Amino acid sequence: MSNRCPPRPRANPATRSGWLPAAAASLAIAGSLLAPDAVAQPADAAAVQRGVTVTTRPRPEFDPAGVRLGSFRLDAAAETGIGYDDNLFGTERNQRGSPVLSNSVAASLQSQWSVHALGMNARIETLNYTDQRDLDTVDWLIGGVGRYDIDSVSSVELQVAQRHSFLSVQTLDLQRAGAREPLPFDEQLARVTARTAFNRVSLSGFGQFRHVAFDGGENLALADNTLAVDYNSYAAGSTLAYSISPGRSATLSVRAEEIDGEGRRGRFIDSLTLEALVGFVYDFDGIYQASFGVGYARREFRDNSRRSLEGIGIDARFVYLPTQLTTLTLVVRRGVDDSVRSGGEGFLRTIGTLRVDHELQRNIIIGAGLSYERREYSSASQNATDAILALSAQWLINRNLSLIGTYQHVKRFDASAGIQEYDQNVAFLRLRISL
Prior knowledge:
Layout (H helix, E strand, L loop, with lengths): L19 H13 L34 E3 L2 E14 L12 E14 L5 E13 L7 E13 L5 E13 L4 H6 L5 E16 L2 E14 L16 E15 L2 E14 L9 E14 L3 E14 L7 E15 L2 E12 L9 E15 L2 E14 L5 E14 L4 E15 L7 E12 L1
Antiparallel strand pairs: 1-2, 2-3, 2-19, 3-4, 4-5, 5-6, 6-7, 7-8, 8-9, 9-10, 10-11, 11-12, 12-13, 13-14, 14-15, 15-16, 16-17, 17-18, 18-19
């Protein structure tokens, strides 16, 4: 469950040329490419297969066709969005807001082979705030994946990625430190995954290396003893599943991660995290689907003066499909996570999300979600609890155009040790153009 990268990305901001021209251009493009209205319900066999949800259902008449390049398929999309954030720094008083414009381009190239697989993907996104230019960011990612199929049930996969991103000023650690600008970092990742099965038993395992470097590196020290320490992460894990009957399995998962901090401050975060979860995967006749794991997570620091972190670990997901047009999803996760605050101390994070997605029309999908997030630091007096309401609506105009509206309300309603409680509203309207 550990991930020293930012948990929640920030909403997209506005361009330097202003957001009204972009809005006019978006509406003009949409008006010229409108498709006839679609009438609703899923009819093709793929749309009603077992396990297909509202968000994963294929819609051949609206899904982007992509471009065939020999035995590969190229998919690409550009997106522009207009929005507003009414509390940029997540403060209780003296709140500042700003119009926001997000622009992004993403592309992927994927093989269409019947055996083995090879793919690449890239994405760049700009976030620009018209009234607070210090918050502007440019995020980008490039990655690749290759899979070698040994036989019908055994394979080895290699994934590599390079990412440049930011910790938002609304991240709790930076917020408490009084940071007024996002904290940039670069991440390199390499991950090997192997899978096999024999009789009723399936086995998967992975090994992963990550290197994270914050802009400023060892010389960067923020207020309130906040440290941004470059580090290497070495992780490995395995999952064993025993099939009781089709769609129903008992599972055992174990994972270990060693974090090795760099430079003279690296000792603050040097640690070993162990996690073991036992659970099950269950398909209740395609109407209910559940996966549940519960166990124990513990982080030990190399510095014996540091207090260890331990607690119950949970990884659970429940999906209910009352009709082919509605999907209800509940996700609960709990485990050890990382902080750049107070000498690199970690915390226990509990996240629960309940979401409903509904296909109002074949080409109109609406959704609503409610999330709960609690952080419990190793210091007993330090904790924070957030509630997040998220609403969304997507209009699939045709294969190449879609319009997406989102709204998010964040409320920090329980905090201690000087952590601010606050409310925040973020709304966006985005136009996506796809190949």
